[in-house]
Amino acid sequence: MTDDLEELKRRLVVGRKSDGRSVYDEKAKSELVALCLQPGASVSRVARECGVNANQVGRWLREHRQGRREHAAVAGVAPTPAAFVAVPVVAAPGAGGDGEDSEPAGMRLQARLPNGVAVELRGVDLRHLGEVIGALGRLRCSVSTKT
Questions:
Q1: Tens of pLDDT along 56-85?
Q2: Residue 77 half-sphere exposure, CB side, CA atoms within 13 Å?
Q3: Structural domain boundaries of the chain?
Q4: What sign results for the dihedral spanned by CA atoms 133, 35, 31, 46?
């Protein structure tokens, strides 16, 4: 364990409740969440090295993300998406405008979203595609729909 993680572990737990649950320092929790948000970081490894259950750290991460969304909504700023997926645009066979097997005016999009939802859109006007994708990204999805 690095010295930084050892020091963070030392500062993290500031007390115990009467039922034995730990009381955590808010600043140290924020630092732990920031470590977990680093590219390539393993939440379970960071949690284990700091002596915290990985499920608890996962809850802190969800609360952090929710807090960012609420803060952005209050500030009137569009929230930053948790994950942005690049969608390559390629011409489908017969879509070259020669009248052969071409779709009606508009685009066709097929995607599997990170929450497990499969989407197929046909005939979507390019001007509206961004709005459609934004609306889909804001939808809440239960864990039961994840694959």
A1: 999 999 998 887 766 566 666 555 555 555
A2: 9
A3: 3-75, 81-147
A4: positive
